[in-house]
Write a structure and sequence with these properties.
The structure is a single chain. It is elongated and about 125 Å long. About 60% of the residues lie in helices and about 15% in strands. A five-stranded mixed beta sheet has the order 2-4-5-7-6. It has a two-stranded antiparallel ribbon with strand order 1-3. Strand 4 and strand 5 form a beta hairpin. By secondary structure, it is of the alpha+beta class. The longest helix has about 90 residues. About 25% of the residues are buried. It has a domain of about 150 residues: 2-Layer Sandwich (Heat Shock Protein 90), CATH 3.30.565. Helix 1 packs across helix 3, helix 3 packs parallel to helix 4 and helix 4 packs antiparallel against helix 5. GO terms for molecular function: ATP binding; phosphorelay sensor kinase activity. InterPro entries: HATPase_C_sf, HATPase_dom, His_kinase_dom, HisK_dim/P_sf, Sig_transdc_His_kin-like_C. Keywords: ATP-binding, Kinase, Membrane, Nucleotide-binding, Phosphoprotein, Transferase, Transmembrane, Transmembrane helix, Two-component regulatory system.
Amino acid sequence: MFEQALENQQYIFLFLLITLALLFFILSKISYNKRLEKEVNKQLNELREKDKLLIAQSKLAAVGETLAHIAHQWKQPLSQINSVVANIEADFEDKKLDDKRLEEHLNEIEKLTFYMSDTIESFNNYLQPNEEKESFSIKDAFDNAFALVYKLLESKQIECKFEIEKDFRVIGVKKEFVQAILVILNNAKDVLVDNNIEKPKINIFIGEVDNKAYLEISDNGGGIPSELFEKIFDPYFTTKPHSQGTGHGLCMAKMIVEKSMHGKLKVENIGPGAKFSILLSKDSNE
């Protein structure tokens, strides 16, 4: 009887020991999971901050490029205004400056200043902060980006061909998407100019692929060397001198399309050049 009671006590002690061990293991696991979760959240927050910094740096670089575009776009109208003023002076000295002739000259100046004002308005709209996601047209976003660079493309005698099969609305931060398109257009322009392409072209296609909204921008700039394909979307990677490029652009464009808009940005060589393609989910409320 005594031996049985002792044996029962041993079983109870063993049971309690196992229970305590399991409890300790569970508590340790919970504590470890909490520490792990905290560390993961910390790492995620750091990555988000790095992403924000990268986008901000890319935006500053894009602002610098856009200011250069505006300076270029203003060069011709300023020269024309100077010519009109010279004509007014000449007409005045020759005593030909009647009311009708003066009005013609002033109307010409007014037309040129309206054009310059529109350029600034496009730039100002691009810079306005807006982090809210919205439904917007792919063509409208492309038009906004193209308005900032078309004069520069024109001055480089780069032919732009558009094919709009069908426009779609997508969800995202529109100004970020405009920035991504601007990066790709500038990249194509730089390649065409740097490679001295005889008849430079940029082709734009908007339509639908695999039931997704699709934007394609291609050029005839000679394509991307195979050894650069793995690096082209890396942060800080650039083939330009540091004074001319930061290496943020394409990395930031991919981040906007894939992380912010949950789409896909791809690049491949086709025929005479490179093709950048963007796939995005269509707005379900369209």
